[in-house]
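Title: Comparing notes on inverse folding

I've been comparing how different people in this forum approach sequence design from structure. To keep things fair, I'm posting one structure and asking everyone to reply with a full sequence. Here's the target:
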């Protein structure tokens, strides 16, 4: 394949990381060059490098890994699409080029795929657990990604079958209890939601609550009620009590502590969506790298 990656597009190409970010990933590791490769005098020797899954995983980060390897001077020979499930020994990415190019991108590409695939794999585990109980449920990840990783993390979430809850503070309106402490009176949910609808009439209004009585109070006004750290049993009690309007709202979102272990229970309890940050802190998935001289 040519170095411009044409002919092997994948989902990740539709949401590309800017070139400046790719350059920054490489610069962190290659600021002063590769001393070992240079000292050995092997930089010009041709070789091939292959990245393979060591265990079951959902692949992510492969598009960015390919781009940064092209930037070092490698040529892409094979690239699996982001979002695919892979098992031990499956080939994820293969490149060829001079030894200097392969070593320049090796560890950055490997680490990127391992971390991003961890996020994607954990997302898929939560999605699978939740949809086994409710095939229509949405699994959404919060904005609590590791700083400076949000775009890569969001891409990994989508590759894993989830979606994004909020991309940032300007993305949606979410009324937290921490907002309400500054209002007068602080617990008048109806007045707070009315104020938000007047200021941003085209936006849906989400309200986070930590108590059942606040959820019931918000039901007549909010579009989404986010239940923070409610148990599955508490979610079920509230779903049974909560009045729904003719349009089916408010949507009930279970948030706080949602993982693959309890996602099924929350789905069975009647939540319409699950909101989680668990994938961002998932264990990376091991990627094996082999290199041969040609």
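Reply #1:
Here's my take.
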């Amino acid at each position: 394949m040519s170095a411009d990656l044409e002919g092997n597009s994948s989902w990740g190409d539709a949401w590309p990381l800017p070139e400046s970010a790719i350059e920054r990933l490489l610069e962190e590791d290659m600021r002063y060059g590769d001393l070992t490769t240079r000292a050995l005098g092997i930089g010009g020797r041709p070789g091939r490098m292959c990245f393979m899954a060591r265990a079951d995983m959902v692949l992510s980060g492969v598009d960015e890994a390919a781009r940064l390897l092209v930037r070092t001077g490698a040529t892409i020979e094979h690239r699996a699409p982001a979002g695919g499930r892979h098992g031990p020994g499956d080939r994820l990415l293969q490149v060829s080029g001079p030894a200097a190019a392969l070593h320049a991108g090796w560890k950055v590409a490997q680490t990127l795929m391992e971390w991003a695939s961890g996020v994607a794999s954990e997302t898929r585990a939560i999605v699978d657990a939740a949809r086994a109980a409710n095939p229509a449920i949405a699994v959404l990840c919060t904005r609590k990604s590791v700083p400076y990783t949000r775009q890569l993390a969001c891409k990994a979430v989508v590759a894993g079958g989830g979606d994004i809850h909020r991309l940032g503070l300007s993305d949606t309106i979410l009324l937290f209890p921490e907002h309400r402490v500054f209002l007068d009176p602080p617990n008048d949910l109806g007045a707070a939601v009315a104020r938000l609808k007047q200021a941003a009439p085209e936006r849906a209004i989400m309200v986070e609550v930590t108590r059942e009585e606040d959820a019931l109070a918000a039901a007549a006004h909010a579009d989404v009620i986010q239940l923070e750290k409610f148990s599955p049993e508490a979610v079920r009690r509230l779903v049974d009590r909560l009045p729904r309007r003719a349009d089916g709202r408010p949507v009930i979102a279970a948030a706080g502590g949602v993982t693959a272990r309890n996602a099924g229970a929350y789905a069975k309890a009647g939540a319409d969506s699950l909101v989680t940050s668990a994938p961002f802190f998932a264990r990376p998935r091991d990627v094996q790298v082999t290199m041969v001289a040609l």
